[in-house]
Structure formats: C-alpha cells, structure tokens
Amino acid sequence: MLRKSFKAAFEETDGGRVRAYASTFDREPDAYGDVIAKGAFAETLERWRESGKPIPLLWGHDTADPYSNIGACYDYGEDDRGFWFEAAFDADNERAQYVRKLAAEGRVYQCSFAYEILQAAEVTLDGGRKAYELQKLELFEVSIVQIPANQHATIEDVKSNLAETLEETAAAIKAGRRNSAKDTDELRRIADAAAEITETVNGLLSDTNTDPDDGDDKREGDSEGAKSQAELVAAYKQAIKTYWE
C-alpha cells in the first residue's frame, strides 16, 4: 500500500466537516516523480459507492489506532483539478475534534491518500521532462497530514456549526452542485429537518431558562435543567423520526 500527499482545504459541520483535494492532476511531478492522470480514481470511487461503505478519513495514515480513524467521506469525485472529497469529523472522538481545530486554525492544511497502482506508464511532460504517470489506482483511505508529497492537495474550507451547515446545504441546492434530482430532494429534506430541530430546540431553551442567581430556587432550577435536557433529546429524536420515515 502506497501513500501520496497534497495540500488540502477544509469545511465543517456539527462535529465538523472537511472539503479537500486528496489529489490533483497537475502535470508537475511530486516528490516521487509521479503525476496522476485525470480518471485515475474513477473506477475505485465507483466501487466505494457501490459498496455502501464510507471512505475512511484518518489522521496521518494511522491504521493501528482506532481513534486515528477521525471521520468518514460522504461525498467525493473527480473534477478538472483533481480528486476531491467531503468528510464529516466524528463528533465524539477527541482526536477528530482536535484535528478539526488545527484545520480551522490553518495549522494543518494538507491531505494524503493510501493507494495501490493498477496501471501506470512513463510519460514525457512539457519541456521534455520524464515522469511516471499513475493512470488507474485502488484507493484505501484519505488522511489529513502535516507534510505531503504533493504540495497542491489542500484543505479548502472548515465550518463548525449548524447555521453554517444549513447555509452550505442551501447554497449547494441553489447552485445545483449535486447532479441528480434525488440528491437535491435529499438535501432539501436534510435542510428542512435541521431547521425544524433548530426551531424546536430554541423554543425549549427559551421556555426552560432559569436564573442562576436565584439561590433559593437552585434545586428547582436543577430539576428544570434536567427536564429541558430530556425534552431536548426527545425533540431531536422526534424531528429525526419525522423527517426520515
């Protein structure tokens, strides 16, 4: 299993989301003298889709520690620039959230991927330079890394809250970034569900707020706080159930 790295670009959701290029099709040889042909990922990405499993997002290609499995790619593809992916960070994984923080602060901004070569050949680039062109690859995982082999695979953007996520979803729908009517309908359902959850939660919070300075009412406030927590959970469950049935 081989590895190749690129600068990346991050976005975020609830637990955090990253959008990045794991590879680019620049005709500039990387640190290993390789270039990657457009279409090199097409078949392996299709196999991932057909499998129904997410492409793992790792920290630094660490496959030994399960906590280094920091997220999952839920969307991916090739464009003229390269192989891009969108992945969600695990909300309950402290390592994932710290990596998200580093990405949001610009302290890490590069990506890498692990692969096997299925087809390759020597090519001559502009100016007569020779390079090894990777033409067909088997993809195993993508990673956020500190030091890449390809300096062009960069993290693009990072978002970290529900409001930003909804804005991103709405923008994607409006711009028609997804290609099928089914995907657009699904995005609308997600946006509607998230908006309903937000409205319900905000209502519960406003109804159950207590004054922390009311010393004599501390026990009552604690009780109300516990009640609001339970209602909060119930609201999430009900909203999810309503919109995904």
Summarize the structure in short.
With 245 residues, the protein is α+β, with helices and mostly antiparallel strands.
Task: Tell me what you see in this structure.
- The chain contains five helices and nine strands, in the order E-E-E-H-E-E-E-H-E-E-E-H-H-H.
- It folds into two domains: 2-160, no CATH class; 181-244, no CATH class.
- The chain has helices at 42-51, 94-104, 162-175, 181-208, 218-244, and strands at 2-7, 17-24, 34-36, 55-59, 69-78, 82-89, 110-124, 130-145, 155-159.
- The radius of gyration is 22 Å and the shape is globular.
- Strands 1, 2, 3, 4, 5, 6, 7, 8 and 9 form a nine-stranded mixed sheet that branches.
- It has 245 residues and is an alpha+beta fold.
- Strand 7 (110-124) and strand 8 (130-145) form a beta hairpin.
- The model is unreliable at 176-180 (pLDDT under 50).
- Helix 3 packs antiparallel against helix 4 and helix 4 (181-208) packs antiparallel against helix 5 (218-244).
Whole-number count of domains? 2
The strand count comes to 9
Give the CA-CA distance, first to last residue. 41 Å
**Contiguous uncertain segments of 5+ residues:** 176-180
Strand proportion, as a percent range, falls in: 25-35%
Helix content: 25-40%
The secondary-structure class comes to: alpha+beta
For the largest beta-sheet, the strand count, sense and barrel status come to: 9 strands, mixed
- Integer-rounded radius of gyration: 22 Å
Provide mean pLDDT, rounded.
75
Outline: globular
Number of helices: 5
Name the helix and strand elements from N-terminus to C-terminus, one letter apiece: EEEHEEEHEEEHHH
